[in-house]
Design a protein that fits this description.
Its EC number is 2.4.2.9. One of its GO terms (biological process) is uracil salvage. By secondary structure, the protein is of the alpha/beta class. It has a single domain, classed as Rossmann fold. Strands 1, 4, 5, 6, 7, 8, 9 and 10 form an 8-stranded mixed beta sheet that branches. A two-stranded antiparallel ribbon has the order 2-3. A two-stranded antiparallel sheet has the order 11-12. Helix 1 runs antiparallel to helix 2 and helix 2 crosses helix 3. The longest helix is centred in the first third of the chain and has 19 residues. It is globular and about 65 Å long. About 35% of the residues are buried. It binds 1-O-pyrophosphono-5-O-phosphono-alpha-D-ribofuranose, uracil (URA) and magnesium ion. Uracil binds next to helix 6.
């Protein structure tokens, strides 16, 4: 299992806008859209390809096509914020949805919705969620998706805490993780420090 922290000046700039508590819902979503596109570009750069025959206006030649169907799975609610950016780069991706909330006291995740496209067992599944805190929500999502037969799963989060990364590395050594930033720690309420607060609330204006 690999953990990749993307080192990119534009991502650092835009993530700082998202971290700022005075950033509006509108600008928060805009920065998230832009970061999602950059992350989609980064995580897909070595996706497997198959050779195809094509004909240019000049001659016959060999081209490429992505070898696998991509299934993008946002963890609701906040994961929805990464979908537009990923779909801009990967317009043929199918979308699965998994609804999850964290109990604010126990920090235990609860799944309340799941719907996936057919063929997930032969697809490359990209789970997206802005926040990886204890790792409980991502773990539950990965477990559910594995039960449905998926074998090729990656997890893409904006901000991760070392606690959650360690937990997932142990439980799912086969799932590669990509982050835009690895933060310092979790506080006593299970929030990432310095983090960006509650991603879902900031994205949907529900705080
Ligand atoms: O790693 P964990 O400790 O499980 O925490 C991370 C989860 O918390 C947030 O969701 P939240 O429960 O706030 O739901 P929301 O997206 O509906 O706001 C976030 O989007 C992750 O799904
Ligand atoms: O810091 C955190 C931790 C979990 N979920 C969030 O939205 N933010
Ligand atoms: Mg939330």
């Amino acid at each position: 299992m690999s953990v990749t922290i993307i080192d990119h000046s534009l991502i650092k700039h835009k993530l700082s806008i998202m971290r700022n508590k005075d950033t509006s819902t509108y600008l928060f979503k805009q920065a998230l859209d832009e970061i999602a596109m950059l992350m989609a570009y980064e995580v897909s750069k070595n996706f497997p390809l198959k050779l195809i025959d094509i004909e240019t206006p000049v001659c016959k030649t060999t081209g490429y096509e992505l070898a696998e169907q991509i299934v993008l799975v946002p963890i609701l609610r906040a994961g929805i914020g990464l979908v537009d950016g990923f779909r801009t780069i990967m317009p043929n991706a199918k979308i699965g949805h998994i609804g999850m909330y964290r109990d604010e006291e126990t920090l235990e995740p609860h799944e309340y919705y799941a719907r996936f496209p057919k063929g997930i067992e032969n697809s490359k599944v990209i789970i997206v969620d802005p926040m990886l805190a204890t790792g409980g929500s991502a773990d539950m999502a990965i477990e559910d998706i594995k039960k449905r037969g998926a074998k090729d799963i990656i997890l893409v989060c904006l901000v991760g805490a070392p606690e959650g990364v360690k937990f997932l590395q142990k439980k799912h050594p086969d799932v590669d993780i990509t982050l835009a930033a690895l933060d310092d720690h979790l506080n006593e309420n299970g929030y990432i420090v310095p983090g960006l607060g509650d991603a879902g609330d900031r994205l949907f204006g529900t705080d």
